[in-house]
């Protein structure tokens, strides 16, 4: 256990790692925004009664463990949309002897009831920020103060406006190391919560349901739209399939419609994506054939268990442009596919994934290319 009386924050932070998320020399577990959020909240944290501190969007544990070690905070409630964040926090908390100081919660009353201080990393999505802000305003103590920080390049004036719809007072702190914190007070409960939202996509005949943090919201991502053109070429004898990185579940629902005998697992590391995909399956009457799974790149699925994997991989890790996440997904696809199974992938053509797919999965053919995207079929 760290001794808060002789607390050395730099020592604590030097021990934090990103695992199981991608680790690389240019990717860090702690950023300047983490430090600034903790500094801005330093006066409020010691006065927060046990169990009234909530942390949202903690990337790898710096906010949670920093508050626990420096201010003796206990009963911290934490919500992290990505599973990799939860797993990294758990591993880091065990490393520094602070695993008993927090618990993970879903976004909502369990996380926020009675909260007086909220520390959060600002999400890049205004939809996610809207849902979080409305949840805080609805469930937290009326005295709650929110310290929401991020890197300057990812903070927009629209974020002030979003917070301003849920709080009567929003102000920005002075910047430091290209980071800034927005402080919000005076929650005002919305008459109706914005999320989840439902949209009918007439182009493909689907109702799509989205929570705030789901990629692309209820809209049709252009990469996914291109991959849909190739689904009729998927092995018609497939019985077990995965929509890997499912988002709102558009690919899962489309494949289930196309192949009446197939069972599809829609999986994502995002809790909002998994909830969205489940709701989208229900909205289209396919929840009996589509199951959802929050997982780190199919790590819990059995080897040689699937006939088809569909994948529109990210080309970033958090805010950083990095293809390590895609490589992890390809490697897991190669593991879970049965011999002869197919991985169908769409990606930005400039990324040139074909060689990587051939190495990690098997023979890979380019089956489509337009000015922006490439679609490949890899056979395990």
From TrEMBL:
Domain of life (superkingdom): Bacteria
Keyword Coiled coil attached: no
All copies of domain RlmG N-terminal, residue ranges: 12-184
Keywords carried by this UniProt record: Cytoplasm, Methyltransferase, rRNA processing, Transferase
GO biological process: methylation; rRNA processing
A Pfam family assignment: MTS
GO molecular function ontology, one term from the record: nucleic acid binding
Organism: Rhodococcus opacus (strain B4)
Record protein name field: Uncharacterized protein
The Methyltransferase small domain, residue ranges: 207-376
